[in-house]
Amino acid sequence: MSATSPQVRQGWQGRFYEDFEVGDIYRHPLGRTVSETDNTWFTLLSMNTNQAHFNAQHAAESEFGKPLVVSTLTLAIAIGQSVTDVTQNAFANLGLDDVKFSHPVFAGDTLWSESIVLSKRESGSRPKAGIVTIRTRTLNQDGAVVCSFVRTFYVHKHGAQAGRDSFPVAAEPLTVN
Predict the structure, then answer these.
(1) 89-112 tens-digit pLDDT
(2) Considering all CA atoms of the chain, what is the largest pairwise distance in Å, rounded to the nearest integer?
(3) Other CB atoms closer than 10 Å to residue 158's CB: what's the count?
């Protein structure tokens, strides 16, 4: 066994402004199965009192026959799924437009999202940042589009002080043994 020091390998740091190209598509790697508990908690947190989301008897009498997942939970999951690819180095969302919920989501559905870069431009007021616009769509396990939206955000450029690695320096080095 070698006596060389372990090497720190840089993990995925997300994209910076320069890394975005119009037309690029990012398939976000993590699917998310929505549970009944997720839906109940989100209903309570968001104070959504529509019984279609938490009253099984009421929902059974609806055209869907069972409780619907709160649409804003679907949107929150879709945005969250995209962070690792598009907004890991963003510092402000500027707009969320053209939001559509095109298919119902139920507990047990697994959601997957992908985004396409629609536009990018330099910031006129922040020289170390740019503005990127993406369209994201979210699919269920059967490939049905359940949600879509356009999002615009500020993102740091490479080398921006705010985009630096902020991992703390350990008091003791990490070793093999």
Answers:
(1) 999 999 999 999 999 999 999 999
(2) 69
(3) 13
DSSP annotation of 45 reads H
Long-range contacts of 19-25 (CB under 8 A, 24+ apart): 20/86, 20/117, 20/120, 20/130, 20/132, 20/155, 21/117, 21/120, 22/117, 22/118, 22/119, 22/120, 23/116, 23/117, 24/116, 24/117, 25/114, 25/115, 25/116, 25/117
Instruction: Supply the DSSP symbol for 9.
Output: P
pLDDT in tens, 123-159: 999 999 999 999 999 999 999 999 999 999 999 999 8
Burial 71-91 (b: 16+ CB within 10 A, else e): bebbbebbbebbeebbbbbbe
Residue ranges of the domains in the chain? 17-158
Q: Is there a contact between 138 and 112 (Cβ–Cβ < 8 Å)?
A: yes
Q: Residue 8's Cα: distance from chain center in Å?
A: 27
Q: What are phi and psi of 100, to 5 degrees?
A: -135, 140
Q: What is the pTM of this model?
A: 0.88
Four-way CATH pick for 17-158: 3.10.20.600, 3.40.50.620, 3.40.50.720, 3.10.129.10: 3.10.129.10
